């Protein structure tokens, strides 16, 4: 995938955020568990906020390092992606969300690694850090649900 400039990358990222927001909204609409519906609604809101931030960066033409999450528990890598179902268990809902965030993080990382332009590479890795922060949040929730004895 080729990107001519930073605005192409930001537009691509905004499209990804919209796709994630739509997924979480549709998931929320399908779920029966009120707590999970709320969780997916909140995730959709986070994706919208990230898209709004990216839009502000796009219109300001100001690019730099904005996301700095480098912690990665790598919990998502240890589970399979569950299918979305109306009666899914909370742990499966968190697993689904963390797998979605993992996929986005890996996509941006791969795009960054493939860049020859150092500034574009940094932007992709910054976007990967944004997704890593979402993944980290879902991994924490997943381990809290899966291992309540740690509370």
TrEMBL record:
Pfam families per UniProt: Rubrerythrin (PF02915)
Cross-referenced Gene3D superfamilies: 1.20.1260.10
Recorded GO MF terms: metal ion binding; oxidoreductase activity
Superkingdom of origin organism: Bacteria
CDD domains: Ferritin_like_AB
Entries under SUPFAM superfamilies matching the protein: Ferritin-like
Domain Rubrerythrin diiron-binding: 8-140
Protein name: Rubrerythrin
């Amino acid at each position: 995938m080729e990107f001519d400039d930073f605005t192409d990358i930001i537009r691509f990222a905004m499209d990804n955020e919209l796709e994630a927001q739509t997924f979480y909204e549709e998931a929320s609409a399908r779920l029966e568990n009120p707590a999970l519906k709320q969780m997916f609604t909140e995730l959709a809101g986070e994706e919208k906020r990230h898209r709004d931030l990216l839009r502000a960066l796009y219109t300001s033409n100001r690019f730099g390092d904005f996301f700095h999450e480098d912690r990665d528990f790598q919990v998502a890598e240890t589970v399979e992606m569950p299918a979305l179902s109306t009666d899914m268990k909370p742990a499966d809902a968190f697993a689904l969300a963390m797998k979605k965030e993992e996929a986005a993080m890996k996509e941006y990382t791969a795009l960054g690694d493939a860049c020859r332009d150092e500034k574009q590479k940094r932007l992709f890795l910054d976007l990967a850090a944004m997704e890593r922060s979402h993944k980290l949040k879902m991994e924490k929730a997943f381990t809290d649900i899966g291992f309540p004895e740690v509370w």
